[in-house]
Amino acid sequence: MEPVVKVENLWFSYKPGKFVLENINLSLNASSTAIVGQNGAGKTTFVKILKGLLKPTVGDVWVKGVNTKQKTVAQLAKVVGLVFQDPSDQIFKSKVIDEVMFGPLNIFKDKQYSYERAIEALKLVGLEGKVNDHPYDLTLSERKLLCIASVLAMDPEVIIFDEPTIAQDRYHVKRIGELVLELEKNGKTIIAITHDMDFVFEYFKRTLVLHRGKLLADGKTEEVLKQEDILKTAGLEMPYIFKISSLVGKDLSKLLER
Question: Where are the domain boundaries for CATH 3.40.50.300 in the chain?
Fold first, then answer.
């Protein structure tokens, strides 16, 4: 089966000769993948290339068998959805329902169908009772869920979350994590770039570690996050559960059953 996302020999530079991504090769299928690394590791650049906001300097990226070099951002919006880190960068309408309908209207060109898609997405994130509210009357956590709904309403195959847990309370972190699990169950390819290692451990099956534009590790989450030397090189913390377990010397085999 052809992968949903295929990356071959990807190099990218903003300035000639200074690469921020170097020789990235990987494939992604319908599952959940976290991309971790310090600021400057190349995470945001990588997902912008997947979204079509940037084009590879060298190499190729295919999404659903289509080379991103051959498609516009608008065309890729049907396949790849990006939830921004800051809701303020994404929200621009004066009613919740209009915000969520904007994408579907541009893709499907059908007002009734777009409305139905929007209501379904709002129900999925728990905001169905806020359809006529102004987005900025919502809490910050609710605005994040609104942005997620706006992407889900377009029904993309690939959904990218940029730092989904930043400024979120514990309840909403759990809510977003549950959405990741539900979307994965429904056959979506979920990608998140994040610094939240506990969130990664709990909700993502696969983890990629980027460091200075290079792919340091790629594998099952529980296996990657146990590699203390890799995480240290990348400037990352181990998940809390691993820290505690190393202190008490307990076997994690049962905890790691996923």
Answer: 1-77+158-171+185-258
